[in-house]
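Anyone opening a protein record will find just a pair of labelled lines. The record below illustrates this layout.
***
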Amino acid sequence: MKSLFTFMLIGLVQVISAQEQEYAYSNGVFNFEDNKTQKVFTEWARVRQSPDVRAQVSDSLQTNQQVLVLQKGTSALQLGERAAYWYKVSYQKDGVVKEGYIWGGNLAIGYRNKDGYDFLFGISKTIDKADKKFNQVYKQNIATVKAMQGNHLVSEVTFDTGSAESLSYATFTIESNHKLKEVLFTLKASVSGEACGIPGYDQYILFKDQKLIALPQLMNVGDADVYYHDEKFIFPNDKGGVPNAFILKMDEMERDDQDREKKKKSLKTYVWDGNTYTLK
């Protein structure tokens, strides 16, 4: 009897857990507008007959497939630190227009096109990351930027994007080469949160010779006038920039109990040789 009770209790916990996952709030980066085109980010994303993870799979779509969002669902599914609504979408495959439901976490949160390449920005997974300093494990989202030509993956890079709290907003832009030699252009992928004290992350990525090269990640966080930590790059085309290098500038302030400001500043110079960068 005790074994049966334990089995039933475990089953009940699993059902409750599944329900919590299915009705979680969506992260802001996964909010997509109706009647707007989006791109599939994951490889072979499943299309279902209804907005439910248990619904029958009717199709699967490759990375970079274009879909038209018809309607946002009323419930969300949470996987790890990623929570997104279901979306009813239409798409063309093999010359036929089809419809179905896709989980928003399988869509790119930003995409751009330049010089015959499609660039996709998405949140690919959640991992457990160990913090040895505080002897704890916490959830960490991993983002990916992919360079595509049609359905062919040309290059990709991955980087941290913090926890779910940092997924309120996302931007994805193409910038100049910032006068870094042999670089065609630069991509910038960013995520940030709504509340004070939630870090935002900026990831600069160089594109050259059909290869994506991720620069050191920038993190910015602050809480009103109590403290802030700001990081930014000074490129060769910026004021104070130097040729064939980029500078990571850090500014930090913390106000103590006596309302005194303690400030820190630092500069790190990375030398760029046209292929790789090294800390000077």
Notes: Helices lie at 2-22. Confidence is low (pLDDT under 50) at residues 1-20. The radius of gyration is 22 Å.
